[in-house]
Specification:
242 residues, mainly alpha, Serine Threonine Protein Phosphatase 5, Tetratricopeptide repeat, 12 helices, 76% helix, 0% strand, elongated, Outer membrane protein assembly factor BamD
Length: 242
C-alpha cells in the first residue's frame, strides 16, 4: 500500500513537471515588463514572474532594472524550489556585484538555498530520520550565515541567521554522531572515540555531544581501557538526559 502511495506521488510530480512549460513573453517596453514581473512576485505567481524576469535579463542585460531583476530572480527561483537556478543566479550576482549594498540579503538567500538543498523529501514526508545524509549543504549554509553575522552584524537578516545557525549546528552534530555510531557498529573503536571527542569539542552544547559519551564509553570498554571508561561514565552522570 505504501509503495503504491509513493508511486502515485512520484507520478503526479512527473506529470506536473512534464505539463509545465514557459510562456512566451510579449515584446513590450522594459518598464511594463518589470511592472508585470513585480505584480507576479507580489501575488506569488513564481512561474510567470520568472518568465518575465528572465526575458528582462536576456533582452536588457545592462538596463536600468538589471541588478534588481537579478535579485528578484534569486528570490523567485528559491520560492519556486528551483534551487539549482537560485544557486547559479546567486553566484552570478556575487561575481558581478561584489560590493552591492544588498550583499547581506544575497548571503542570507544563499544560506537559505543551501538549507533547502539539505532538506530530505522522504524525511519531510514520512518523518524518517536521515541524520547520516551528506552534510555539505548544511556546512555551506552554516558558513554563509556565519559570514553574514561577521560582515553585517546589524543586518535585518542577522537575527534569523543566528537562529538557523543553531539548528544547523545540531544537524551537523547529529551527522557526526551517526558516523560515530557507524564506526562503533563496525568495531572501529578508535575511529568511534575520535569522532565522539570531535563532537564534544566542536558542538559541546548539543544533545549529540551528550549522546556521544555513551558511544565513547562502549568503545573504551571494548578496548579494555578501564580508567577511560570510568572517566567517561562520570561525565555521563554529570550530563544527564534532559
Amino acid at each position: 500500500m505504501k509503495y503504491q502511495t509513493i508511486t502515485g506521488l512520484l507520478a503526479v510530480t512527473l506529470l506536473f513537471g512534464c505539463s509545465s512549460s514557459k510562456k512566451v513573453v510579449p515584446d513590450v517596453p522594459p518598464s511594463q515588463l518589470y511592472s508585470e514581473s513585480q505584480e507576479s512576485l507580489q501575488s506569488g505567481n513564481w512561474e510567470t514572474a520568472i518568465s518575465k524576469l528572465e526575458a528582462l535579463d536576456s533582452r536588457y542585460p545592462f538596463g536600468a532594472y538589471s541588478e534588481q531583476v537579478q535579485l528578484n530572480l534569486i528570490y523567485a527561483y528559491y520560492k519556486s524550489d528551483d534551487l539549482a537556478m537560485a544557486s547559479a543566479a546567486i553566484e552570478r550576482f556575487i561575481r558581478l556585484n561584489p560590493t552591492h549594498p544588498q550583499m547581506d540579503w544575497v548571503l542570507y538567500m544563499r544560506g537559505l538555498t543551501y538549507m533547502a538543498q539539505d532538506s530530505n523529501f522522504m524525511q519531510s514526508l514520512f518523518g524518517i530520520d536521515r541524520s547520516d545524509r551528506d552534510p555539505e549543504p548544511a556546512k555551506s549554509a552554516f558558513a554563509d550565515f556565519k559570514k553574514l553575522l561577521e560582515r553585517y552584524p546589524n543586518s535585518l537578516y542577522a537575527k534569523d541567521a543566528e537562529k538557523r545557525m543553531f539548528a544547523l549546528k545540531n544537524r551537523l552534530a547529529d551527522y557526526d554522531l551517526a558516523t560515530a555510531d557507524f564506526y562503533l557498529r563496525r568495531e572501529a573503536w578508535i575511529a568511534a572515540i575520535n569522532r565522539c571527542q570531535e563532537i564534544q569539542k566542536t558542538y559541546p552544547d548539543t544533545e549529540a555531544a551528550r549522546k556521544s559519551l555513551e558511544i565513547e564509553a562502549k568503545a573504551y570498554k571494548k578496548l579494555g581501557l578501564t580508567k577511560a571508561v570510568q572517566r567517561t561514565e562520570k561525565l555521563i552522570q554529570l550530563n544527564p538526559e534532559i
